Amino acid sequence: MIYNAVMFGFGVYYIILHPAYDLRCMEPGAEDHPDKSVERWITCSYFLNKVLDLLDTVFFVLRKSYKQITILHVYHHVLMVFGVYWLVRLYGVGGQYMMTGFFNSFVHTVMYFYYFISALYPELKSSLWWKNSSSLQ
């Protein structure tokens, strides 16, 4: 949850608050752009997080913990790993694809916060109105 919140914070700063970006149509920055190293770091961290999410799903399958996963869950995590890799190889880092990672990190932040609250206070689990946040994926 902390990682996703940090990535969401980077997304807010570098996409919404940073004047170098335009939300309508962002081109990948030039190689000598001052924020290019930050874009590379964010993209690499995001990709590694997607690999860890996929491994988490694989471990659910290996433990035969089928109530915790769905076909959509498996499809999403497989597609995210290969999709992020393909987009970075094809287009490089930065640009409009940063928005996809931003929204995905936001959804994961909300989802993991729900898991945190429901683990901390199990009696609230049934009354948390946003418990279906994973369907936003």
TrEMBL record:
Organism annotation: Drosophila virilis
Designated name of the protein: Elongation of very long chain fatty acids protein
Enzyme class of the recorded protein, top EC level: transferase
A single BP term in Gene Ontology: sphingolipid biosynthetic process
Family to which the UniProt record says this protein belongs: Belongs to the ELO family.
Keyword line: Fatty acid biosynthesis, Fatty acid metabolism, Lipid biosynthesis, Lipid metabolism, Membrane, Transferase, Transmembrane, Transmembrane helix
Pfam assignment, any one: ELO
Ranges that cross the membrane: 69-88, 100-121
Gene Ontology molecular function terms on file: fatty acid elongase activity
Catalysed reactions listed for this entry: a very-long-chain acyl-CoA + malonyl-CoA + H(+) = a very-long-chain 3-oxoacyl-CoA + CO2 + CoA
Gene assigned in the entry: Dvir\GJ26931
Keyword Transit peptide recorded: no
Topology of this chain in the membrane: Multi-pass membrane protein
Subcellular location: Membrane
A GO-annotated cellular component: endoplasmic reticulum membrane
EC number: 2.3.1.199
